[in-house]
Amino acid sequence: MARDSCLARITAGVAVGGAVGGAVGAVYGTYEAIRYKVPGLLKVRYIGQTTLGSAAIFGLFLGAGSLIHCGKSY
């Protein structure tokens, strides 16, 4: 397996993880902002922080999983 394909797999894993994590974070952040009655524009900030945090964490884990999986030869 070439290095470029391994790097492409890791990049794709981070991108997919970021997209899925961002979507889940946006839904969860919206739910929490409504549940705790966050006022005004702070609601947008809260949803944004939740979205970015969730996207970063999930992207990190999926990228790490892709890195581990890339090292295996079948």
From TrEMBL:
InterPro entries: Romo1/Mgr2
Transmembrane segments: 12-31, 51-70
Key words of the record: Membrane, Transmembrane, Transmembrane helix
Cross-referenced SMART domains: Romo1
Predominant subcellular localization, coarse grouping: membrane
Keyword check for tRNA processing: no
Gene Ontology BP annotations: protein import into mitochondrial matrix; protein insertion into mitochondrial inner membrane
Subcellular location field: Membrane
GO cellular component: TIM23 mitochondrial import inner membrane translocase complex
Domain of life: Eukaryota
Family affiliation: Belongs to the MGR2 family.
Protein's recorded name: Reactive oxygen species modulator 1-like
Organism: Tripterygium wilfordii (Thunder God vine)
